[in-house]
Amino acid sequence: MALSIGLDIGGTFTDLIVFDEVTGELQQAKSSTTPKDLTIGILNCLKKSRFDMKECRNFVHGTTVAINTVIEGKGAKTALVTTRGTKDVYRIGRGNRPESYNIFFKRPEPLVFRHMTFEAPERLRASGETWKPLGEDEAEAVAREVLQVEPEAVAVCFLHSYVNPAHEARMGRALAKLLPFAYIALSHEILREYREYERTSTTVVNAYIGPKVTRYIDGLEKLLDSLGFSGSLLIMQSNGGVMSPEMAKRIPVAMMESGPVGGIIASAEIGKRLGHQNVIAFDMGGTTAKASLIKDGEASVAEGYHVGGYASGQPVMLPVVDVVEVGAGGGSIAWIDEVGGLKVGPQSAGGDPGPVCYDQGGEEPTITDANVILGRISPANFLGGEMPLNVAKARKAIEEKVAARLGLSVEETALGIIRIAVANMSYAVRGVSVEKGYDPREFVMVASGGAGPVHAMEIARELKIPKVVVPLFPAHFSALGMLMTDVKHDYVRTYYRPLAEADFKVIQGIYDEMALIGRETLRQERVEEESIRVQPFFDLRYIGQEFFLTVPVSVEEISSGDAGAIRLAFDALHDRRYGHKAAEEPIEIVNIRVTAYGVRKKISFPEKKALVESPAIKGFRDIYLDDPRNPVKCPVYSREALPSGYIVEGPAIIEEYASNTYLSYRDRATICPYGEISITVGGIE
Amino acid sequence: MKVDPVTLEVIRNALPAISNEMSYDLQRTSYNMMIYEVGDYCCALLDAQGNLLSQNLGGVSHFVADLAVVIKDGVEKIGLTNFQPGDVIIANHQAVCGQHLNNVCVYTPFFFKGELIGFPIIRAHWVDIGGMSTGFGAATNVLDPWMEGLQLDQLRIYKGGEPNTELLKVIADNIRYPEASMGDLRAQMAACQLGLRRLEELFTKFGRDVLLDSVKRIFADTEAKCRKVIEQIPDGVYEAESFMDTNGFQKDVPLRIKVKVTVSGSDMTIDLSGCDPQNKGPYNSRTLAGARVAYKALTMPLEPVNEGSFNALKLIVPEGNFMMAKYPAVMSGWSMPIPTVVDTILKALAPAIPDKIPAGHLGVLGGTIVFFGYDPQKKKNFIVQSIEGGGWGGRPFEDGASASVSICQGDVRNAPIENIELKCPVLVQERVLRQDSGGAGKFRGGLGLDSQVRNLVEGRWNLVQTGRRECPPWGLWGGKPGDVSDFLLRLPDQPEWQSVDVALYPVPTNSEVIVRTAGGGGWGNPLEREPEKVRMDVLEGFVSLEEARNEYGVALKPAGHPYFYEVDAEATKKLRAKRMKEG
Question: The pTM is what?
Fold first, then answer.
């Protein structure tokens, strides 16, 4: 036996997926997340599923410990060391107020006290030349000052350290010597890209969460050790890859946004297996719906993000799988605003108390309640029948809180709530596709999350996406996706020059250095030489623009200095993304990027049995499709019973343990050889 | 026809989504920092009568007004029946557009089944429009609109899809950075095209009648929401007055801003008749922005804007007022007084809604860093540009924010030091919060900052005072005013910093400049501030020990550690009692 385990800690549940590489069998287990000590929840989950940890070869783990530490403000007592004259850069930030008319706007809450911020007497120029050198003794003097405030962690960010890290390294050594107990984060070890505020913030976040994440991973390693685990432990990152526990302790900030990533990677992989390189991953859970775009088999990546939202959040300038999120989930509340307009979300009843139909004290009608009233979710078979739903209460809530005030029937209102939610969710999908210049008609949507398959066909119809795939285990998709990831590290170096004046020998040197660091890091993580893949990128823009586009280039284009090919690729991407280009205008390089992959063997599922006989329809249920007065009697299937090749014509419902696929008129579902449901969306010419 | 509530809600969300997508597109493809960094633009959809269907969020707030006049004027000059698909119209003429000439409007007609429905429009700040308009705009010492730059009066640069190449050449030949401005024009047109495509999709999906009916209802809903907020304000007439250092024309005569706000039920009237008349200085404009920004901030600050947002606001700005200047007038500094106008309107309402109005903020469009010259090493011209934020007033429930841009600027970002130094031969030696610059109060004003720059080659500095060097951000309810803004210069052979007010000022290598922004005013009596908060402020260096004692009446003593203090409760009690008695 050889097992691979994916373990995903979410806000409410800890999810486990165990894959037997020999039999191809999958098991899942769920237990409540234990926020005080996450490892307790992990242990509960491991105990629930009966297998021997000694058999486990790969253990991939995604956790919210990093992001929660920031959001809850429970990180380390952190000090910051900056260049002389710039101690307030971290507080001043960019001075912007994204909420223009809000006279009570909130600035990002600094994670470091000002009296714990120190300036080192040093200065570099943008070229990397030294303007004011930092002596060993000066560095030590600063470290002594830092010592006096007794920090648990220290972040260091000097101006222009992205081009010349010598001073930062010197400061780091002095700190390590005088504060051996402290967690130390140097900006150049995390990212080497210009923009001091964003780099400082990223470094501060890293230091702030460093001690806690380190303790957490140490605890997890100890726990696994005690269970006899001797395989490799890997930690999920925001960029869609995994990393070793050692790297995770050094750069914990790289795992901040790893939450939704597993599902996106799984969507890409499932897409590939079904022959689709271009996929829109759509995930709808309890509070939000998320969309991301996969082009040519690769998830789109953004160069940075703000923890806690753009308006008042902490910037983190590390690659993150690009996700557009809207406040529409199963628990999103339908309400009437002060002038009688019908609204859905963003407030959510979450899992506790949850929708009214859960009968756990929820009083506000939600999207799930609307689905139950419309018959699209079965009140009897929810969570495999473990949790019967109270339809009467759901009806009453919609009647009293919404329908009566609009003068509509309960069914009309329920259909309206779904329509508004679908329109809102389609903005998330548009955000990753249409708005980036991609035509959704050329994509397949992979729908996951407990509520995803219920709404996916409606969203697809709205955007004319011709095909939807509902994967196996849609409600445990994130954990499953962790078993399909590669080890992945990103590197960046600012190299600022017009393309026409670029010195490709210098670029080759920068590329070689980053590629070497990448390969070396992967080797230390026990990645085999033949599994290593290195991809360079240039950040390019027309001279005069500020925003750049990240364009993949080949190693050959670098070594032969093929600026022409690089420029053509940039023009084409600009045209696609923004609808125009300027082939005559000079362009410039801003950054060189390298991504180093350690390609891992992906899990594969056993084939489903071929069609032998027609599966028994579980029964029929009245479902409201689009007419609020006349429900239609629709067949209900059990997903487990559907053999490969079987075709279900909508309208119909396909039920499974923690999810539900809803097919409307002319939707046509086919069961794939490995069990995925592939749906041709009706009503699209 | 009655639109069902569900369709209505879908359309309500769809219209702002179009303007926001246009904005995203424009910002990412523009060629000058005024657009991509400062957000000095707006993207909107208007109907053929000039009603605002939607406008992008974020960016520069004072663009919330003044689009309708452009469309109405264009329709009048071109004629409703003369527009055709593929037209692109350009306009910035001061007589109608009423702003500095760098703000160039570009719009395209939207036809649905042959009927002219409306226009996507983008007004954006070009880096140059000829005359003296370079960078942030023409200097404030220009004498008339023709010195400011080119005036474009509702001209079709494309007619039925065909470019007017001669007109485009005239424009390109008469501006300094034609690549940049033509690039911005391209970005504006592309974003308008995007607006057209999205409108087409939306109208096709819902049909003309459903859409236009929904729009009426959306306006009515928005108006009703605003009215519900204004209803909460006690009826009355509220007045306030404030000043800027000069009226822009006579150095020793301040500019007077006097506002009268009348609340009656859910109606609000903002009367700006008491403000100074227009003059030969640069502060003139034709704008409703001051009152509209204030009204928006009071009613629905986080919601999208549409015509309904201002239906319940009556605005009085008589012809000849400096904000309704008759043509021709200099408008190169048109937006400079607006943040103070907004703040004065808020101040007027403080007695009516004391728990909703903060003390005065920096009141100007930031501290601007502008230095330009020739870089002998890179062999090319350069320009350093950044907008530095200042302090906001103390709030009725917490301290004001530090180092943030004004009420007329939203997502306006300063230039990173590393970015400036990568591009230009200067050294930013400091960017620091200024101790004691926030007005003392129960809730302290936010701090202003000092940005100190050394030029490493010779060049010219623009250090034109922004009009509030002598008129500090005010305190409220016993709070003290904040520290003022300033420009300081130190030439290489000078020992002292000098406060200056100069434009295009030539300096030798190694001169140094401090761009200083104001701190916000304090809210409430500083003697009522919790001593613990004062202790924290001193520990953090926001407030000095002396100011803690003198302004807040808090005595601190060292607590056995070089960085830590504790409140001397006994001494503080005495000190505060004494201060209270002194009044």
Answer: 0.92
